[in-house]
Amino acid sequence: MKKSITAGIIALSLLLSLTACSDSEDDSVTTNTDEQAIELEKTEFNIGYLNSTAHLLAFVAQEEGYFEEEGLDVTLTQFSSASELASGLESEKLDVAFIGSVPIITFQSSGHDLTIFGGAMSNGHGYVIKSEYTEGVDDVDISILKGKNVASVKNSVQDAELQLLLADAGIEIGEGDDQVNIVYFDSQKDAYSALQNDTIDAASVYSPYASLAESQGYEIVYRCSEEELLENQPCCRQVATTEALEEYPNSYNAFERALIKAYKFSQENEDSTISDIKEYIDIEEDYIRTEVYGGYGTSNPDPDKQATVELKDSIVELGYTDDYDIDSLYNTSVYEQALESLIEENPDDSIYAELQEHFDQYE
Questions:
Q1: pTM to 2 decimal places
Q2: Closest to 232 measured CA to CA, from 330, 101, 82
Q3: Is the pLDDT of residue 26 over 60?
Q4: I want to staple 219 with a disulfide (CB 3.0 to 4.6 A). Which of 117, 126, 132, 134 is the partner?
C-alpha cells in the first residue's frame, strides 16, 4: 500500500513538473528536419498572390498540408497589383508576396528594401488581339499590332516584354499607323476587360487569361515562351522584406521546404494539382490544365538569379528602370538550404535531384 502511495506521489510530481515546463514555454513551434529540432521564430504566415494559376505552389502547399507539415499556419490573400503586394510587405501585413520580376526590379531600383528569395513562375505571358484583325493572316506576329491600341499594365513583365520585342523588331511606340499605341491600366484584369471596348484592339495576358481569351474568340499574337528573345523569362518571384528574412530564417526555410514539396507534388499529381488550383482560381479545369501543363510556363520555386539578372540588365538598357546592385537584394541561400535538407531526407528523389541540378546551373 505504501509503495502504491509513493508511486502516485512521484507520478503526480512528474506531471506537475511537465505542466510547469509547458506553461513557461513561448509560442514558438519546433519541427523536425534531418532528425534535428528546428525552432520556428514565427509560425503565422500571410501570403499575397495575384489572380493567376502561376502561383500554384502556394495553393498546393496549402491544400496538401505542406505548410502545416512544416509548422506554419498560413493565410492566403488575393491582391490585384504588384504595388499592393509590395505595400502589404512593407506594412508587415504580408510575410511573403508573389510579385512579378519586372515590378520587383523597379521597386528595388527605387529604394524599396525588398528581397527576392525564390521563384514562382517562368514565362506564361503574351498578348491577344481581336479576331477581326487576323482574318486572312497566315502568320500572326508582333507586327500585327502596328496601328493598334494595346491594353497593358505599366511596370509589369508583360509591358517590358512587349517593349523588348518591339525594340528588337524596330517598331516604335506611338499612335501612328506603323507604331503601337500602348494604353495602360491598373491591373491585368482591367487590361483584359478593356478588350470589350471598341477603342482597344489587343491586350496583354498572363495565365490564365490567355486560355480565357482563346475560349472567347480572341487570337494569340504571341506567347513569350515561343519567343527566342524571351526564353526562360522569369516572372513572379517570392519576395519578402530584407529585415524579415534576417529575423525569421528558420520560418522562411520551413516556408521554402513547403513550396519545394508542392513543386514535387505538382510534377507527380496533375489532376490533384488542378483541383488545388481551382480552389483559388475559379475557372474551368481545362483552362487550368492548358496554362499549367501546356508548356507555356513553368511554376518552379528556384530563385533563378541568373535569368533575373539578365532581365534586369535588359530592361535597364531599354530605359525601363535605373541600374542598381541587385546582389544585395537577392537571397538564394533560403532555397539552397531548404532543398539541401529535403535531399538529405530523400537522397534518391529524382525531382529534388533535378532541382539541385537546375540551381547549380542557374544560381
A1: 0.86
A2: 101
A3: no
A4: 134
